[in-house]
Amino acid sequence: MKRVQSACLEQTVHFMLKEDQIGHQAAVRAVQEEVRQYKAELERKHTRHRILSEQTQADGSVVLKLKKQYNQYDCGDYLK
Fold first, then answer.
1. DSSP H or E segment with residue 26
2. What is the arithmetic mean of pLDDT over 61-66?
3. What does pTM read for this prediction?
4. What is the mean predicted confidence (pLDDT) over 27-39?
5. Could you count the other beta carbons within 10 Å of the beta carbon of residue 69?
6. Nearest-5° angle of CA 77, CA 62, CA 14?
7. Residue 13 falls within a domain, yes or no?
8. What is the per-residue pLDDT for 23?
9. 2 found inside a domain
């Protein structure tokens, strides 16, 4: 029998602008708010995570690279 001892996800999330629906400046503010809410949700749900990098692109979109806990599995040494 096998059992998962530890699990961790490494993700790259691209928060893209929605300029076709609203103007550029409003789209940039919306992306910044979406990133803030994403981070707050990780905290609120007590998801163990570590942000590796957060880069604002030339167009105002944001690329977030992170490691985070998968479900409620132990993360082992992944997040140290």
1. helix 24-44
2. 96
3. 0.85
4. 95
5. 21
6. 70
7. yes
8. 87
9. no
Give the closest residue to 68 by CA, choosing from 8, 2, 21, 27. 8
50 pLDDT more than 90 = yes
Return the SS3 of 12: strand
Angle at 30 between CA 24 and CA 36, to 5 degrees: 140
Q: For residue 56, give the H/E element and its range.
A: strand 49-56
Q: Which residues have C-beta within 8 Å of that of residue 5, sequence separation ≥ 6? A: 74, 76
Domain annotation covers residue 20: yes
Tell me the residue type at 73: Y
d(CA 27, CA 23): 6
**pLDDT for the residue 65:** 96
pLDDT confidence of residue 77: 79
User: Would you say 37 and 45 are in contact if contact means Cβ atoms under 8 Å apart?
Assistant: no
Domain membership of residue 64 as a residue range: 8-69
